[in-house]
Amino acid sequence: MNPAALDVRNATYRYPDGTCAIEDVSFSIAPNEAVALVGPSGAGKTTLMLCIVGFLRLAGGDIHVKELQVGKKNLRQVRRDVGMIFQNADDQLFMPTLYEDVAFGVLNRGMEPDDLDRKVRKALADRGLSGLEEKFPGHLSGGQKRLASLAGVLIMEPGILLLDEPSSNLDPKSRRQLIQQLDDLENSRVLASHDLEMVLDLCTRVLVLNRGRLVAEGDPAQILADTKLMESCNLEVPHSLQPHRLDHHDTPRSRRGFR
Amino acid sequence: MSLVDASRLDRHAYVDSVIQRLDPRAKVLATLVFILAVVSFDKYTVSPLLPFLAFPVLIAVLGFVPFGLIARRFALALPFILLIGVFNPLLDRAVMVEVGGLQVSGGWMSFTSIFLRGLLCVTAGIVLIATTSVPRIAEALGGLRFPRVLVVQLLLLYRYLFVLMDETGRMRRARVLRAGTTKASIRDATGMLTTLLLRTVDRSEAIWRSMLVRGFDGELRSPRRLHWHFSDTVFLVLVTTGCVFLRMNPITTRLGGWILNP
């Protein structure tokens, strides 16, 4: 049997002031599986991701990445296997040109310049960013920045990809493009998002976090259609799972006309 | 100042010209030689410094760097330069030279010398950045075996400036929209500065994390390899020879002597 790509066991994390951000969370992710982490703001989604890559130390429980325990000793190896896309793409693009930014991770792994050039150009081409190599990343559009940060992480061929709100601040076309790109990936993926339609498009399993606790887990179409559960977690059933209701409050303002 | 303005100086580094094509190490070394030559004059030297202006002017012309841009950047450094020598005319009142019946004290001479040296060194630095870019300068310093920690600090500081300006721009816009004016009281400004610092620290931490996730180990590696060509040697030799010649032969003093005593 293949070992789990990611195994989180009874993970608990407390802020320095003692507030519990994550409490006794357990789940595991199989190789190539795409799992969504959903929950209201402040539920602990980003905190959990930061624990997985070892930026925050657990107060209890443990996390294993391909059987390797996340801890001070193993951080380099863990981060070789886990790529993370942060919520704000601007924080992820820090080099003076797009080419150098995408090359950053593989250069740190000691890749030879000849292989590097071929690999960087391919990574950019795969994300539809060819021709922008010498561009200052700060001058890219929001969608391009997101794809560029994805290219910078995917070039390192991580086994697990953590995506923190990847569709935030994207226009509908860029969002659609991103969904297509993410759908083509074969890595194990953990997607933290409020974009529940995106979760339905990309994930085969959903984990619902509320106030740091894992409150539900299962098939996205079933879990996200559970009105009671969604309301208890300050979430809404995604439009595509809602039965069509045409009462006054559900009719868009544009169709109601002036009164 | 927006992020675009901040990067304008750097953007000239990507223009294709004979200066931009030079190896960054040659330009860094040439600038160091130039600065050493300029600061090696004694404190009352004025006229022998003037021919040194040719260096930044030539590099700017050949590298297509607009003089207006250099002047604006120099204006930022000007108050600091003036502050260094501002008390000299008060402290050193002994008459040193007489120009057309006007007596000039040693204090005014040293003040002018400080201003000229500041002008030369700062413009040389600006022109170096404009034709090379900060990341390339850092690569050159790395190639010249400067301590790694200093090179990384330089690059991180450079990145932090962008973060700082980005956040400043956002806060300024938000404030103008609500206050309706760009003017802020000292109390408001203090509060904004504190918030700005906290926000930039937060963002710097986020950038730091994204660097660590991608295997950063304290060394910033460049995908480019530095190549030293014959033209780099020629450039460095020309600049060094020119600086040594001007340092040893104060041509303006001699020129003045010939004019006054033909």
General description of the model:
The complex is a heterodimer of chains A (259) and B (262). Chain A contains 11 helices and 10 strands. The mean pLDDT of chain A is 89. Chain A has one domain (6-239): P-loop containing nucleotide triphosphate hydrolases (Rossmann fold), CATH 3.40.50. In chain A, the strands form 2 sheets. A 6-stranded mixed sheet of chain A has the order 6-7-8-3-9-10, sandwiched between helices. A 4-stranded antiparallel sheet of chain A has the order 2-1-4-5, with helices on one face. With 259 residues, chain A is an alpha/beta fold. In chain A, a hairpin with a 2-residue loop joins strand 4 (60-65) and strand 5. The N and C termini of chain A lie far apart (64 Å). In chain A, helix 4 crosses helix 5. Chain A has helices at 45-52, 75-81, 89-92, 98-108, 113-126, 142-154, 172-183, 196-202, 220-223, 227-232, 253-256, and strands spanning 6-14, 20-29, 34-38, 60-65, 68-69, 82-85, 160-164, 188-192, 205-210, 213-218. Chain B is mainly alpha-helical. Chain B has 2 domains: 1-145 and 229-262, no CATH class; 147-222, no CATH class. Chain B contains 11 helices and 2 strands; from the N terminus they run αααααββαααααα. In chain B, a hairpin with a 2-residue loop joins strand 1 and strand 2. The radius of gyration of chain B is 22 Å and the shape is globular. Mean pLDDT of chain B is 88; it is low at 1-5. The chains are: A alpha/beta (259), B mainly alpha (262). At the A-B interface, helix 2, strand 6, helix 3, helix 4 and helix 5 of A face helix 1, helix 8 and helix 9 of B.
